[in-house]
């Protein structure tokens, strides 16, 4: 037999007393009702677990685990804790009763949590005739039309745990389902959300959960979050069998040292130290169910993600209420921290009357609190549809001149450092993102802004009487840059011969003292010509011809006006614009903050031709007044 194996975890779902636990027992031989009250009342209250092994077509071993969830409406919170870590479901519908309220709610929850695979078991088939079975099957197929079950071509299998009819077909379809299911994201950091914690005699604290991502090994040192509690893995079991290592997609029991069972509980997460930690503020995209009530700004909801739950306050971007069936960007403030990463799915339930109203996807777990709302919305809209590499670029760009380390980007995205490096390799090579010493990442636009700021400060110092350049410490303080970014930018400017570094001072390139004024009154005339032209300024050769001077002499006049800050170069040796015209343009752009503009709308706004519009837009980019986003620019 092949030594390969695959581990898959499947959740049950369905209305109370529709036979979920009985079917799992018939398939595995394990009774998942472990609590005395469950035995007494004959219903599932908390999560139950069972496993079985099957042979795959290639001869490998399939380890199949079930998370049996309660079907009663009072215990949906427990159902969410079990379903939150799973991507495949066995939806159970009793043939004698058909579709019931929790059938509908559980299916909606699976859809909100991003399930992609499933089968439908039509239980208690012995209690229904063929006409009844056909009728219930049609209604079930109508129910899941358009859902993930429809897209997965989920089969409907009549089965009776009492007589054994249909059990072989269910096992076959479970095998097919397991083969369709993926093995998790290999780029993601280790996460094991805990669903149980207890003491085992002779071993101590044991925690269990479904391993979302990464691998767990014996003797490994991990952290329980939130709380940063350091622990060590004393032993492992996967799917009920001892193991030296556990892989993503497995049911895992971990024997921990360093923590008492009383201090470990459902909702916590095992992670690698100094990677992920609890967060209490996230930006997300939320979808409300079609029959949900209107959601108001500042609404209070129950927030469920993986095995954790807490109350949350919903801040709707745009403030106006969210209508049923709508999709909205929101900021969620959690009552207590949770370990979350971008891409995680969650469910929202209203407090009273308690009901599932929607769910969504985490977009950002480290939002910039001081960023204007319009900027945040524009950034989230880009992030929402971007690929992985572009998402990483957007996160680096958002940090502006502060930059972002590989480690911080890993924690912000939930991806391993190696995965982040791999995805950013090409954009670093193309200089869209710059790699600074110390593994600090800096966006090319942020570099341009930092360089512009430093050049301005150096040039201003050079024009002051008897003063040339600035001390490095003073220049860094005035530029407001951290040392790694400042040193990198100054070195780059020095290589380009835009500045000179002398001892501990930075001076403008070619600065040999105060400039002497033009030998005649033409300096004021040229300045006036630029002022009168506004944004549609003449070229240097045009001015030389107008004032009857040689091109070299006109360029000397231009240099003096530049140092006096009367005019500003637009990126071309021949195009300069008067400072007053630029100040008016900046004031005009301030009124458009948060809007996206393209070249055509900028031309319409300013009345300029493309000859002037493109250099001016590039100037606004350098000045961090606008930021290029594809063919458009966001006004900052």
Could you outline the blueprint of secondary structure elements for this entry?
Layout: E1 5-13, H1 20-28, H2 36-41, E2 48-55, E3 61-68, H3 76-83, E4 88-94, H4 101-112, E5 117-123, H5 130-143, H6 148-151, E6 156-158, H7 167-180, E7 192-193, E8 196-200, E9 204-210, E10 215-217, E11 221-225, E12 229-238, E13 241-242, E14 245-247, E15 251-257, E16 269-271, E17 279-288, E18 299-305, E19 308-316, E20 327-338, E21 345-350, E22 355-364, H8 373-385, H9 388-398, E23 404-405, H10 406-413, H11 417-429, E24 433-436, E25 440-443, H12 444-463, E26 470-471, H13 472-479, H14 483-495, E27 499-502, E28 505-508, H15 522-533, H16 540-547, H17 551-563, E29 567-572, E30 575-578, H18 579-590, E31 596-597, H19 599-606, H20 610-622, E32 626-629, E33 632-635
Parallel strand pairs: 1-3, 1-4, 4-5, 5-6
Antiparallel strand pairs: 2-3, 7-16, 8-9, 9-15, 10-14, 11-12, 11-16, 12-13, 12-15, 17-20, 17-22, 18-19, 18-21, 19-20, 21-22, 23-25, 24-25, 26-28, 27-28, 29-30, 31-33, 32-33
Task: Write up this protein.
The chain is an alpha+beta fold and 636 residues long. It folds into 5 domains: 5-180, Rossmann fold, CATH 3.40.50; 192-271, Beta Barrel (Elongation Factor Tu (Ef-tu), domain 3); 279-364, Elongation Factor Tu (Ef-tu), domain 3 (Beta Barrel), CATH 2.40.30.10; 386-514, Winged helix-like DNA-binding domain superfamily/Winged helix DNA-binding domain (Arc Repressor Mutant, subunit A), CATH 1.10.10; 522-635, Arc Repressor Mutant, subunit A. Helix content is 34%, strand content 29%. It has 20 helices and 33 strands. Strands 7, 8, 9, 11, 12, 13, 15 and 16 form an 8-stranded antiparallel β-sheet that branches. A 6-stranded mixed β-sheet has the order 2-3-1-4-5-6, with helices on both faces. The protein has a 6-stranded antiparallel beta barrel with strand order 17-20-19-18-21-22. Helix 9 packs across helix 11 and helix 12 crosses helix 14. The longest helix has 20 residues, at 444-463. The model is unreliable at 512-520 (pLDDT under 50).
